[in-house]
Amino acid sequence: MSPFVSLAALAALIAVPAMAQAAPGDALQLALDRGLAVDRHEEAAWHVTDELVADIADPAAAGIRGWVVTDTGDGLEVTSWKPEGDGRAGVYAARCAGEEVVDRRVLEGEAALLSEAEQALIAALRAVDPSGLERCSDQPLNSMELAPSAQGDLALVYYLAPQASLDLVSLGGHHRYEVRDGKVVSDRAFIMSCIDMPTAVAAQAPEALVISDLLDPVLTNMHVFALLAARLQLLAIIDEATGAIEASAGQPRIRLVEREQATS
What is the pLDDT of residue 168? Predict the structure, then answer.
């Protein structure tokens, strides 16, 4: 089956009722929350990196080895860091509010001291060894971290397949680690196949994307992330149901159709 088809062809394939009910369940809400967070963190890092290369002529010479994203309440703060002595120090920071980058600054002196939250996320990243991960291209994987949502929760470290161009997004090739107290407690891959899908800006953009995914019993945060990156409706055939993910005003939502209902 082609990974992308027209809405009309898809409707004929799975006979989705016109008024499918919104999908309930903690697992689906978690997929929505995490998928949206991953997308926003990735976009913030992308926008701030564009400003960094304008403000720092040679990031490599400045010693930058990575970045960390934290939620300040009024936007996402992206801080680029470098090794310094036995620890790490900030080099450059800016805040991303939507697509606008504000408060750009080169960090020196006390301003270069990383916060506890930033240090904890970098420590979680350093707990992961990605050297054995399978990749869908020769390009390096993009790393990102999500802070624990509550005291005692796990930090999440993602290694994401890079987006080769604005008109393609990778659905496969993503990995996630759960980290607690500097140790990896679990890890997993999402969608075992390497699949590049067209985005809304592609020359021949489809009306929707559809994929069959038998790895998970429910939709995951990577399905939501793919939808937001592609800016197209995504329909995933999973286990005993078909999940339709769409976004309105940047907010994703899931509708689920049970297989028996869809074929009756």
Answer: 81
